[in-house]
Amino acid sequence: MTGGAPLKKVGFYGTAEDVSAAARSAAHPWEPLAARYLEQGKAVVVSPGWVDDLLDGQARIIGQASILTDGTWIWPSHLAYYLRTYHVVLPEALLTHMISCDWGVPEIDDAELDAISEQLMPQYDVP
């Protein structure tokens, strides 16, 4: 897992243009396996907020705002939606990682999740 290494980020789209730039017109052959992998990620940050589709203003809410991990990569929970809907491109390094894990997210214990959470959260000096 992380072993103190920085987490690799994927799929944090801020604008419709970001999604459009990553979108493709046809599904990738590995898409169902990759989408399932992304959905199996372990929640490391969960927000009570909801996420809208950045490209389709008519689309309903696409999911809860949360961040998932496999211990090496982090991504927003709605990345699987963008993969299935717009066939966004994923980094080759992530696909290689997914294949090396046989398309299944590795087990992450609570201590690892805590360490990942601390890595993501800004440190505050509380008096």
Provide key terms for this protein.
5 helices, single chain, alpha+beta, four-stranded mixed sheet, 18% strand
Q: Mind telling me the C-alpha Rg?
A: 15 Å
- Strand order across the largest sheet: 1-4-3-2
**How much of the polypeptide forms β-strand, as a percent range?**
15-25%
Low-confidence stretches: none
Total DSSP E strands:
4
The overall pLDDT average reads: 89
Helix percent reads 25-40%
Total individual domains: 1
Largest sheet: 4 strands, mixed
> What order do the SSEs take from the amino end to the carboxyl end, as H and E?
EHHEEEHHH
Coarse morphology? globular
- Treating each run of at least 4 consecutive H or I residues as one helix, how many helices? 5
Structural class: alpha+beta
Query: How far is the first residue's CA from the last residue's CA?
Result: 33 Å
